[in-house]
């Protein structure tokens, strides 16, 4: 009996992407396909063979995982890993979504009710995780907006907004003195 498993995965244009394959047995034979076309294969200890646009921009590891170098929009699609562990065939499927690179987050600020309100925004195709860090405080704040009492702001205080998606992150920094009138 073959076990089929499907997972949505995300990569970013221009970056390297490795399919998250977790195999606990020794892999004897591996075949990767994209939309039913062969991408890479390996038998035993032989060198891997690569096909089509993947021959010079992919790496097949011994554990069966595949890395695509310099991801392109055209790499999006349904990928299937078929591997044999000397007992049975296994099948893993992945739907690879290729997204544009993360934008730099934009920070805006305004004052109301004796507090400085900071907002961090980034235009991206998927929901982002937002984190704030203040230069005088090791704690981070996991939200898109941050409010600071005006009396806590001094001339050297900086705030950094970090956006995250999957394994990627970008950040922007602002000196809080810029926000004061």
UniProtKB/TrEMBL annotation:
The organism's place on the tree of life at top rank: Eukaryota
Keyword line: Glycoprotein, Membrane, Signal
InterPro entries named among the record's database cross-references: CD2/SLAM_rcpt, Ig-like_dom_sf, Ig-like_fold
GO cellular component, one term: membrane
Keyword Signal appears in the UniProt entry: yes
Subcellular location: Membrane
Name of the protein this chain belongs to: LFA3 protein
Organism: Lanius ludovicianus (Loggerhead shrike)
Taxonomic classification: Eukaryota, Metazoa, Chordata, Craniata, Vertebrata
Name of the gene: Cd58
């Amino acid at each position: 009996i073959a076990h089929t498993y499907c997972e949505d995965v995300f990569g970013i244009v221009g970056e390297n992407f490795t399919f998250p394959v977790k195999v606990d047995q020794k892999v004897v034979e591996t075949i990767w396909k994209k939309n039913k076309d062969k991408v890479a294969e390996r038998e035993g200890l032989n060198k891997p063979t690569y096909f089509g646009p993947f021959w010079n921009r992919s790496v097949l590891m011994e554990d069966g995982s595949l890395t695509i170098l310099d991801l392109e929009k055209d790499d999006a699609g349904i990928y299937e890993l078929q591997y044999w562990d000397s007992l049975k065939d296994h099948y893993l499927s992945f739907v690879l979504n290729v997204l544009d690179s993360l934008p730099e987050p934009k920070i805006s600020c305004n004052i109301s009710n004796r507090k400085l309100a900071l907002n961090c925004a980034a235009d991206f195709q998927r929901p982002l995780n937002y984190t704030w860090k203040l230069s005088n405080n090791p704690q981070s704040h996991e939200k898109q907006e941050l409010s600071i009492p005006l009396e806590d702001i001094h001339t050297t205080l900086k705030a950094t907004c970090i956006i995250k998606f999957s394994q990627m992150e970008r950040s922007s920094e602002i000196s809080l003195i810029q926000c004061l009138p």
